[in-house]
Automatic annotation (TrEMBL), chains A, B:
Listed PANTHER family: AB HYDROLASE-1 DOMAIN-CONTAINING PROTEIN, HYDROLASE, ALPHA/BETA FOLD FAMILY PROTEIN
Name of protein: Pimeloyl-ACP methyl ester carboxylesterase
Domain AB hydrolase-1: 30-260
InterPro entries in UniProt: AB_hydrolase, AB_hydrolase_1, AB_hydrolase_fold
Source superkingdom: Bacteria
Record SUPFAM superfamilies: alpha/beta-Hydrolases
């Protein structure tokens, strides 16, 4: 079962329907993917999902209010983390790995802090700690990219996820083509209300007190492009420096979507790390 | 012609014989490799040399007083840079790329500053800027590793170049085996006098005034392991941040020898960068 043809399922989480997809063989410690700002199920790079699913059960889902999931998206990372934990528990899981990208990386940090026994290992990509440099600016960066996208006829991720070099822009087109591989049973679009709530949560995270990262003793793999315009790369250095048990992977000539641009290398690093 | 069977040649540089090896097809802009503390010709990873030589002429050499080269090793990075430039000019070259590893990365920075027109692109691995955090401590780190090596019967590079995890130590053994692939025409050993002069130069670099990195406008690829015990990784972040035209590559679960541990990925990144 690959990501391209994994059916979209739904589960009741405390009275709200959450949509998700499972890929890979069932395992004791599945890897839960935590999505980014504006993302629905179809925004995950199939190469990363299928790559990790080669050795692990992978579960991707829409958090509350996102895509096909019901309810209203909360306006704090802490509430998003509680919703994610409720979803994980609703699946009957008692131990999981997390892969959080961008906003999902914020959520992963809170889950690791608040539910340490639920978590084995954590991958945090394109993200940063609470109070991290430039993180509260993500809304303005998004707005600027939407304007550029409108003016140029390109997808905003050309500006947000990839470097503006030839290499970066070729990688952007390849990534966007991968997101379109799945033909049927695609997820619902994200709503403007949800984006607004996510931006509120991200702004509060960026303005928040520094996380107590020294309390997260799980093994963590931190990954990013070397010039992330959404979550400035210095935040990845900070995560790796302040987390007691962290590894760091930085990809050259890459931005927020570095793990997608370098998906063969990143998948290998993720598999090595999760082993 | 691969690194394993490239003959060791010699050239007169202002009255002193410098030894070198050439690999790959002749090209207009060869890549000059600048070696690390204690290194002779046989300390370069054949996979990295041959990997870069797949698309470029690669020239490795012993700087003054090192291995089979004559003369006395100077006690400053600036003098080493002048010797390297004299070697490059003696070969009749007017434009080169540089790949400097550790001490060689210091030398590369000085060459790029003092002879900007001689240089096209620069790769700096396992290195850092003048005055960089912890760089003047390299001698003590070396001494500690020599003691551990003596006590454990392992090569010092197990401690200096690779992380102490299972992955890191397997990579260390594989790297050391690669260094032994060449059977004949091996280089002379390094002398204690040369190591002493190199340590003096490194100490002065580490205590030196911060380099004027903003003056280096060449494209630079900075690479390192995420936990370099010889040239702390924060120095690679600093190089990438302060150099006006830099890319950064950081390898997880890796130390000073990250580019050797991840040689397939690093070679690909280097080829992309040099194209």
């Amino acid at each position: 079962m690959s990501f391209e043809n994994a059916p979209t399922k739904a589960i009741d989480v405390d009275g709200t329907s959450f949509v998700y997809r499972e890929i890979g063989e069932k395992s004791d410690v599945p890897v839960i993917f935590l999505h980014h700002l504006t993302a629905v199920l179809d925004d995950w790079d199939p190469r990363v999902v299928d790559g990790v699913a080669a050795e692990h059960q992978v579960i991707i889902f829409d958090n509350r209010g996102v895509g096909g999931s019901g309810g209203a998206t909360p306006t704090s990372v802490e509430e998003m983390a509680r919703d994610a934990v409720a979803f994980i528990r609703a699946l009957g899981l008692s131990k999981v790995d997390l892969l959080g990208f961008s906003l999902g990386g914020f959520v992963a940090q809170v889950i690791a802090q608040e539910q340490p026994d639920l978590i084995r290992k954590v991958i945090i990509a394109g993200s940063g700690p609470a109070g991290g440099e430039g993180l509260s600016n993500m809304g303005a960066v998004l707005q600027d990219a939407l304007a550029k996208a409108g003016a140029s006829g390109k997808h905003p991720k050309h500006f947000l996820f990839f470097s503006q070099t030839d290499n970066g822009q070729v990688a952007a087109s390849a990534f966007l083509a991968r997101l379109n591989e799945r033909e049927g049973d695609r997820d619902a679009a994200i709503s403007n209300e949800t984006i607004g709530a996510q931006l509120t949560a991200i702004h509060a995270w960026g303005q928040g007190d520094p996380s107590k990262l020294s309390e997260i003793h799980h093994p963590v793999l931190v990954a990013n492009g070397d010039d992330d315009v959404m979550a400035p790369t210095i935040n990845s250095f900070e995560l790796a420096r302040r987390l007691p048990n962290a590894q760091l992977s930085i990809f050259p000539d890459a931005s927020h979507g570095g793990i997608f641009q370098y998906h063969p290398v990143f998948v290998q690093q993720a598999l090595d790390f999760l082993r």
